[in-house]
Design goal:
221 residues; alpha+beta; ten-stranded mixed sheet; 28% helix; 27% strand; globular; DUF4123 domain-containing protein
Length: 221
């Protein structure tokens, strides 16, 4: 099954029941029946945008970890440090006691390790035009620690006009890759590149596409 796309106004994480309709933002979703296929489609789009958005960083947090002792916390820090490269950051928010990690990813999307991206809704991939100071980025992203919601995605992107936030979803029946970004003229290139590669599907036909209950109707690009 070929990848299709859906384009919607607002911030609409795939699994959320509380999206926003804020027209300042756009959510463009690639949809397929297999994560590997949707990942390849995402890579194809990102490769075409490499000159404009070369910087890629993966963010995650230890939201569900409660340390029973200082020793346990120390071992977590040690094990995490073994997974980091020079320039990466793992830091504890002293107010929430939650650690979050930012890893620098290869600029070439096909060289990015995607295991964590497909395996968790609580991992975010950030795409930047220019590299910002990682400590500043970490501070801005602490609002995602406890939960990644449509509302706090909006808050984050409001101050980041030239940043794309990408999230991924994988289930037994389908997989999705999402681009969430500010809806201004410079970012229209994202949808243009996607339109050139994939057919558009109406949101009303998504459940038919996923379940194969009828032949889905593609709309014009």
């Amino acid at each position: 099954m070929k990848t299709i796309y859906i384009n919607e106004s607002g911030v609409r994480p795939w699994e959320t029941i509380n999206p926003t309709n804020d027209a300042r933002f756009t959510t463009t979703t690639l949809l397929d029946h297999d994560f590997n296929n949707v990942w390849e489609s995402w890579c194809d789009v990102m490769a075409s945008l490499l000159n404009k958005w070369p910087i890629k960083r993966e963010w995650s947090a230890t939201t569900n970890i409660d340390f029973n002792s200082k020793t346990e916390e120390y071992l977590f820090k040690k094990n995490t440090a073994d997974t980091l490269n020079i320039g990466d950051l793992c830091k504890k928010n002293e107010k929430s006691n939650i650690y979050s990690t930012i890893k620098n990813c290869p600029s070439n999307p096909r060289k990015i390790q995607n295991l964590a991206l497909g395996g968790s809704h609580e991992v975010v991939l950030l795409i930047q035009e220019t590299e910002t100071e990682i400590e500043d980025l970490w501070r801005r992203m602490t609002l995602f620690e406890k939960r990644i919601t449509a509302e706090n995605i909006s808050i984050f992107l409001e101050s980041q006009p030239n940043m794309l936030l990408c999230r991924f979803y994988d289930s037994e029946t389908h997989a999705a890759a999402q681009f969430i970004y500010q809806a201004h003229h410079e970012n229209e290139i994202i949808l243009k590149k996607i339109k050139a590669r994939f057919k558009k599907l109406s949101i009303e036909d998504v459940h038919h596409y996923i379940n194969g209950t009828k032949k889905h109707n593609h709309t014009s690009n």
